[in-house]
Amino acid sequence: MKDTMQTGFVSNSESFSIATLIYARLRRVTGRVIDVMYLVQNQAYAQYVIDLALSANDSELQRQAERLRSLIVFEVEPNQIEVKEEIAETYETEVTEEEIYRAQVSHHYIGALR
């Protein structure tokens, strides 16, 4: 079950599992949260997350980022540098305490019903 070129990854299932590992580790190490589904669908965002994971100076994040990078099917685009700069500007915001709390509210809500 390999999808190629449509999403930019050689294998969707393997890239999804690696992306979830990066999500968990990145959240634990840096407090940053990524969108795994969007990462699997958008090659530019995947590259941004890989760069973010490599800059975290964590050996496990670096290993997983390299695994994810090996799955990406790169297509040469002339405006790729401009797109990367736009994405970096979009995702440079820091996570606030309120956003972290709102992300965790759904977990608290289910427990409160019991």
In terms of topology, how is this protein built?
Elements: H1 12-30, H2 36-41, H3 43-54, H4 59-71, H5 80-90, H6 97-113
Structure characterization notes:
With 114 residues, the chain is mainly α. It has helices spanning 12-30, 36-41, 43-54, 59-71, 80-90, 97-113. It is globular, with a radius of gyration of 15 Å. The N and C termini lie far apart (40 Å). Mean pLDDT is 75; it is low at 1-5.
Descriptive labels:
114 residues; mainly alpha; disordered N terminus
- The SS-based structural class is mainly alpha
Low-confidence parts, pLDDT < 50 over ≥5 residues?
1-5
Give the count of structural domains.
Answer: 1
Number of helices: 6
Number of strands: 0
Q: Give helix and strand order, one letter per element, not per position.
A: HHHHHH
| Range of strand content | under 5%
Q: Biggest sheet: strands, sense, closure?
A: none
Based on Cα principal axes, name the global outline.
Answer: globular
